[in-house]
Design goal:
It contains 19 helices and ten strands. The chain has 399 residues and is of the alpha/beta class.
Length: 399
């Protein structure tokens, strides 16, 4: 009955527990093959002869109170006369190259989502370097491949993942948020690798691609998805306008007198915040600023008018609004705003395409915190492939 309880706790298909030895720190479990099971070739499934047998040891989930569980199992080399090979046969629950069971590795992989890698040794007795290898192996084995059929729209952006401008290119399904592709770099080639994986039918199904105007992805999209419509990301556009307004603020501060400088100083975020997000104090402070500086008043008004672009349902009306806005911004003759307005007029079709497809890179922007959290928990990422697996895991868990 004692052994049967361990058999239920530590099942191994085709094997039975022969011995159990319990110590204060270690539990040793000895396995033997179930004699009722035929010894078959793992490749062709035919019966094969046993060539030689050794005993191997691996580790399994803790039995409680920090106890280490060691599994001693027969590692049998057979000979298949059909395949003319000498395959090794071990319990399927044991990883083929790690000295651990899949149960232990999956437990470590689950923990890795919530605790730093260097905490693993204290929790389950697995060193940090071993823990991230376990996590990587589990993710490679368990995560499904991306489903590239029937994708309506994709989101593309680059993210910084390490110091020294280490970037990766991310591609997400715009409708589900599933991570489809990650590649080091932020150049055309980083995105081309994704398109090369698509079949002609999969490419045709993609109707829209959301990108940043300043990125290097436009030519890759035009080359591989000529029928897809480019949508310039709303959040990047507002960020670009915010930079232009902040440049105006800095120039006005530089040229202002001492009294006006006292009013302009510290107003950066009041200028950039949406009116509904201003506190009463911020609203009063902003009012004083706009009353004494005409250029900042114009910039603030143009910012609020530009936001209205994403309230339109009709492409034609959105285009009319944007072109009129660009003309007003150019007439204001404020250099940073004029430069931004010229870019808007040039890219107007990509901006108003939002009215048709209603997609932004908001989902990818949300990956910023996920990327930071994953890198922190792993105490740094040494493998781009491992980072991709971790981010894909997170994206699938949010579906």
């Amino acid at each position: 009955m004692y052994v049967k309880n361990f058999q239920a706790m530590y099942p191994f298909e085709g094997y039975v527990i022969e011995t159990v030895s319990c110590g204060p720190q270690v539990i040793h479990i000895g396995l033997r093959r179930d004699g009722r099971r035929a010894f078959k070739c793992p490749d062709c499934g035919r019966a094969m002869a046993r060539n030689r047998e050794t005993t191997r040891r691996c580790y399994d989930l803790s039995g409680g109170a920090g106890t280490v569980v060691c599994i001693d199992y027969p590692n049998i080399q057979g000979y298949c006369s059909c395949c003319k090979t000498f395959p090794m046969v071990r319990p399927s629950e044991v990883h083929p190259t790690r000295r651990a069971t899949w149960r232990l590795m999956r437990f470590v992989s689950t923990l890795a989502r919530f605790v730093p890698m260097d905490a693993m040794a204290g929790i389950c007795g697995v060193p940090a370097a071993t823990a991230w290898r376990f996590d990587r192996d589990v993710l490679e084995n368990d995560l499904p491949q991306p489903d590239l059929d029937g994708i309506r729209a994709i989101l593309v952006d680059e993210k910084s993942v390490r110091r020294g401008h280490g970037y990766v290119t991310l591609v997400l399904n715009a409708d589900t948020g599933e991570l489809l592709h990650m590649k080091e770099g932020k150049k055309k080639a980083s995105l081309t690798g994704f398109f090369d994986r698509l079949t002609p039918a999969q490419k045709v199904s993609i109707e829209a691609v959301c990108i940043d105007r300043a990125g290097a992805y436009k030519s890759a999209v035009a080359e591989h998805l000529p029928e897809a419509e480019i949508v310039y990301d709303r959040f990047h556009l507002m960020a670009n306008l915010g930079k232009a307004i902040d440049q105006v603020r800095r120039e006005e501060y530089r040229d202002a007198g001492e009294a006006d400088k006292a009013v302009i100083k510290g107003q950066r975020y009041n200028l950039l915040r949406n009116p509904e997000n201003l506190s009463d104090e911020g609203e009063q402070s902003l009012g004083k600023l706009l009353a004494i500086n005409e250029n900042l008043g114009i910039a603030h008004l143009l910012k609020d008018q530009f936001r209205l672009t994403w309230t339109y349902q009709s492409v034609a009306w959105a285009r009319k609004h944007l072109l009129a806005w660009a003309a007003l911004a150019e007439a204001a003759a404020i250099a940073p705003l004029t430069k931004f307005a010229n870019g808007v007029a040039k890219d107007v079709e990509g901006i108003v395409a939002w009215c048709t497809h209603r997609i932004t890179n908001g989902l990818i922007e949300g990956f910023n915190s996920i990327v930071s959290r994953v890198i922190f928990k792993a105490r740094g990422i040494r493998s781009a492939n491992y980072l991709y697996l971790k981010l894909r895991q997170e994206s699938l868990l949010q579906l």
